[in-house]
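The methods section describes the discrete structure representation at length, but only in general terms. The central task, working out the structure tokens from the amino acid sequence alone, is never made concrete. Nothing conveys this as quickly as seeing an actual entry. For illustration, here is how one protein appears when written out as sequence plus structure tokens:
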Amino acid sequence: MKRYAAVSMLFVSPATAQEFNLLRDDAFGYEIPIPAAYELSLRPEAGNSRLYHNPQGDILAVWAGDVGASGFREAVRQRMRRDEDEGWDITYERITADWASYSGIQADQIRYLRAIRYCGDRMAYFLVDYALSQKERYDPIVTHMVRRLRPSGSC
């Protein structure tokens, strides 16, 4: 039986002035802070992903899975190529053996993706799309999420 927990944290960071709820997914072994303004809008039956929206229409997706035969770096590159095929202009990328980030712009939107490799063969991701005009407001929020996306327990 797959288990997950959403643990509320009444956490307001001076850097972000933002409240977060901690999503701890015990089935896939990771945790990430979700900005409190985001509401869950979709959780497929497989249970390995969640889609959130906030009142402004911004999107946050969180998911996890196995690295697969192609490896961590190639899995991230494949996702980046898909985004480029969909019209995203990738403006930043950094891919290491254990984490990766990239961002891109499409029209008036920014996309930021972060992935981590953990427990040998697992990956957890978050992807956030928001208005380019909101970059300054989102920078500390995304930074907080990047720093706190991590394994939730021992492997």
